[in-house]
Design brief:
Keywords: Guanine-nucleotide releasing factor. This protein is an all-alpha fold. It contains 22 helices and three strands. It folds into two domains: 129 residues, Son of sevenless (SoS) protein Chain: S domain 1 (Son of sevenless (SoS) protein, Chain S, domain 1); 222 residues, Orthogonal Bundle (Son of Sevenless (SoS) protein, Chain S, domain 2), CATH 1.10.840.10.
Length: 470
């Protein structure tokens, strides 16, 4: 974040700010009307009061944890563009900035605070500004704040340039995903049309587990980096009955980066199963299994739990797990240890312990490699989902249940720290291309390949094999 000027109110970074739920209200000792506190922690408030609490004044600037938590959760009650409109109105009217005769000293004192709030918003919730109404409000307010002051004009220009760059990067990422998916579809079509065509396998592309784990980590971190915090909220879209039964996301772009990441997990699982079921010879299938076990172990060592779980998931698919003769040729000790680490019993107790260890390592890390924490993403979403479902958004008196949103923001802010890590490993384009576009069998095709490798063993399998061959 650029420094606006020396008297800019300084806020500490988001990292670690939300360790305990709540916000110590030291900066604003008066308890505003419509806001309720318990032990100096904001627990609920009317939507209007919470919006007022977001807007800086001459002697007040909101705590950074409050800004993040409110901007994250407010979209459940009000469109971001409507919130921006209200913020602009409060800044201009409440602080008398719309008055042509407004005291220049007053604007000079207020402008850094309002600009910092806008910086927090544009940097952390950039995707809100894909809406033209948001950009229009942003430009109108910043124009008023920076008129006649060269320093603020530069700050505003820089802020908008950074925002445009980020939105451009997002569009390019979305376009790249479309191309990757189209290539993968084309390759599968070719394979179906010419089943005898020589299909390259993963071991011919890369037979080093450590290198493969590094390339998987590249894909994971790239996809993580494009997920914005509000996507977690939008994933649980609900109609708030106290807001005229309207959805706040009806005319917004859906959580596409989050969906793309979930799709990647599914693709990797099916790719693992495909690579194992494809070879005709048992010895080769066993070799592929052992390779993936080693890749999974390297992923665990790196802190890439998502790829680790995708590999385990692929190896546990029925078409793979039924290959008993192949499994008999595999040394499974290492796989058993990995399965134990990711065992779902006790609400994934072992995995959560390993994740805490990786998170602690990340906080004290000296190297980028040690900073890597890639969570098992489906479980992270499930945790946030149950947190969302477990408490209502509103209190009985209609106030926003802010205690719930502190907790949600704490979970999402931890993810925000993990997604900012740059991948330290060298890219291998050939391996990456293979991982992203190699043909992946459907469940039926996997079963067919599995039965052809090791014949059906019971009536149910025989019936399924017959139906698949028709």
């Amino acid at each position: 974040m650029c420094t606006l000027c020396d008297n800019m109110p300084q806020t500490s970074p988001l990292t670690g700010m939300l360790v305990s739920s709540g916000y110590n209200q030291n900066q604003n000792q008066t308890k505003e009307e419509g806001l309720y506190y318990h032990d100096n922690t904001l627990v609920s408030g009317s939507l209007e009061a919470l919006i007022h609490h977001l807007v800086p004044s001459m002697d007040y600037y909101p705590d950074r944890t409050y800004i993040f938590t409110f901007l994250l959760s407010s979209r459940l009650f009000i469109h971001p563009y409507e919130l921006m409109s209200k913020v602009c109105h409060l800044c201009m009217e409440q602080q008398r900035l719309s008055d042509p005769q407004a005291d220049k000293m007053r604007i000079r004192k207020l402008a850094p605070k309002i600009l910092q709030l806008l910086q927090e918003w544009t940097e952390t919730f950039s995707y809100d500004f894909r809406d033209e109404r948001m950009m229009r409000s942003l430009k109108e307010l910043t124009q008023r704040l920076s008129s006649g002051d060269e320093l603020y004009r530069k700050v505003v220009h820089q802020m908008i340039q950074v925002l445009i760059r980020k939105l451009t990067t997002l569009s390019q990422y979305e376009e790249a995903l479309v191309k990757i998916n189209a290539t993968a579809t084309d390759r599968l079509t070719v394979l179906k049309a010419k089943p005898q065509a020589i299909q390259r396998d993963m071991l011919s592309i890369c037979n080093d587990p450590f290198t493969m784990a590094q390339q998987l980590t590249h894909i994971e971190l790239e996809r993580l980096s494009n997920i914005e915090p509000e996507e977690f909220i939008q994933a649980f879209e609900k109609k708030d009955l106290l807001d005229n039964d309207k959805s706040c996301f009806s005319d917004q772009k859906k959580a596409s980066s989050l969906e793309a990441y979930v799709q990647w997990f599914n693709r990797l699982s099916f790719l693992v199963a495909t690579e194992i079921c494809m070879p005709v010879k048992k010895k080769q299938r066993a070799r592929v299994m052992e390779f993936f076990i080693d890749v999974a172990r390297e992923c665990f060592n790196i802190g890439n739990f998502n790829s680790l779980m995708a590999i385990i998931s692929g190896m546990n698919m029925s078409p793979v797990s039924r290959l008993k003769k192949t499994w008999s040729k595999v040394k499974t000790d290492k796989f058993d240890i990995l399965e134990h680490q990711m065992d779902p019993s006790g609400n994934f107790y072992n995995y959560r312990t390993a994740l805490r260890g990786a998170t602690q390592r990340s906080r004290t890390a000296n190297s980028t490699r040690e900073k890597i924490v890639i969570p098992f993403f489906s479980l992270l979403i499930k945790d946030i989902y149950f947190l969302n479902e477990g408490c209502s958004n509103r209190m009985q008196n209609g106030h926003v249940n802010f205690e719930k949103f502190w907790e949600m923001a704490k979970r999402v802010s931890e993810f925000m720290v993990w997604k900012k890590v740059e991948c330290p490993f060298e890219k291998d384009r050939k391996i990456l291309q293979y991982l992203l576009t190699a043909p992946v069998f459907s469940e039926d095709t996997l079963y067919l390949a599995s039965y052809e490798s090791e014949g059906p063993e019971n009536h149910m399998e025989k019936d399924r094999w017959k139906s698949l061959r028709l």
